[in-house]
TrEMBL record, chains A, B:
<dbReference type="InterPro" id="IPR043129">
    <property type="entry name" value="ATPase_NBD"/>
</dbReference>
<dbReference type="InterPro" id="IPR000600">
    <property type="entry name" value="ROK"/>
</dbReference>
<dbReference type="Pfam" id="PF00480">
    <property type="entry name" value="ROK"/>
</dbReference>
<protein>
    <submittedName>
        <fullName>ROK family protein</fullName>
    </submittedName>
</protein>
<comment type="similarity">
    <text>Belongs to the ROK (NagC/XylR) family.</text>
</comment>
Amino acid sequence: MKVGLDVGGTKTDVVAVDAGGAIVGRVRLATGWGPEAVTATVIDGVRALGTDAGVDVAAIRSVGIGIPGQVEPGGGRVVHAVNLGVDELDLAAAVEPVLGVPVRVENDVKAAAFGAYALHGGSGSMAYLNLGTGIAAGIVSHGELWRGARGTAGEVGHISVDPAGPLCRCGQHGCIEALAGGGAIAERWGRPGALPVRDVFDAAEQGDPAARELRSGLARGVASAVRILVLTADVDSVVLGGGVTALGDRLMADVAAELAASAEASPFMRSLRLEERVELLPAGSPAAALGAALVGAARDSEEALAHG
Amino acid sequence: MKVGLDVGGTKTDVVAVDAGGAIVGRVRLATGWGPEAVTATVIDGVRALGTDAGVDVAAIRSVGIGIPGQVEPGGGRVVHAVNLGVDELDLAAAVEPVLGVPVRVENDVKAAAFGAYALHGGSGSMAYLNLGTGIAAGIVSHGELWRGARGTAGEVGHISVDPAGPLCRCGQHGCIEALAGGGAIAERWGRPGALPVRDVFDAAEQGDPAARELRSGLARGVASAVRILVLTADVDSVVLGGGVTALGDRLMADVAAELAASAEASPFMRSLRLEERVELLPAGSPAAALGAALVGAARDSEEALAHG
């Protein structure tokens, strides 16, 4: 039995996976704030599998943790997980003595990419494009995660696709994240609300010009990211996930229209059949926690998962 | 002994490589036009190694051919090599019976990427960015060429980085190739000359506004391609080659200034140290022919070279 956790900004998703890859238990709990509370969340989450989901915790052989921030490949240390109040934390070292099994830590988008790939059938190549507060992708090919040389593989959010576009928090103009990141959209929308991007879509449908511009920028940014992933890494498919994809078909319709417009203008783009290669991760998908479980169980994650 | 040929639009570069990887003979000849003349060029080129470069042609064990156009992975057939007057040609089948050794064919940019990687020390990861009539890249990591799923890996030339940019021959606006491709620049410059891009640089230095705009677009396009390759594939280095790089330090100074401007604006971009990761392939480098020789000698090129 392997366990995977997806430690998110507000909630942590925990799954237990059997030897055949099936999810046999799942719990969710609130994520604590700061290094000690995040450590406690992981320990509580694993224990809750036993108390709340009937999982035999004595049968757990490994734990994998997906967490936002920079994680050293094959390591257990996370830095700059700003949404969790964590500047630096050796999470594996903190929880291993308590849990009594090997623990591996992975960047949450990379873990989700690995999980989405497994759920997607585990063959060919795929990019997982995470549309959350920020935007980043994980690329998986033939079962291997593309890690890159210096930790920026899949950081498509900070590619500028419009020099006249909005200022990004990174300092550049027209970054994909400035156009399509949930955080940037909420900031530019500037009105209170639990789900600002949904409010933007609603207001755009009622004709609000500011909302229409934000909504069209979101589709442009996502379509640009899809084109970049296909024209650089040439993945078979691009799977969209993350908080902003809660918009579901409304988002997909906009992205499809944007891709159709470039296919209309360009025979070359048309030949790529991008609209057929983009998919949405189903709402509530356990991809991120499942991917973390797979990372945690890899005997030597450097060998088994790293490439690039 | 392995032989590699880089079949270019005007000239074909031929090298003989010994078991230790050293180039022991090199000849150049004019490339013929059309399927039969291209086939003859390859045969003549290999024979010229013996007659003109003192190579023992009886010791040749394999031949690899880099050629513009689409090449099936591990195959010998090239399609759409428009600059050579070739619509479709099974080049391996045409030359193998005459040369009497196994022949493999590879896309010229991918072959050059493989050769540049070998010349670069053969470790880590590298993108070879070819700045010729068009723009495309080849990505090599840990000795493996990233092939992708459907033949568009490294096709960064058709990523739009400016919706208000010039119309690309592909139908989109602001493609990297429309800004920085030698063909697009020559077309927009529109004045006769043997080396239009050099003329553009000269005229820009004399203050010609149209030339200054073209020159700044070239630097913007190349810098965008570098950023995209690092933020998607996260390669250690980006090596620039191809006809436009004959401009040498003049081109590099412009690209470095463009990268410095984005590093100035963005701490994140600054952290990537892009200006230290971009290099120029030396003028006259045998990278493309050497890479073709390595591809030709791979026992099973699918296994040894393909990935992605």
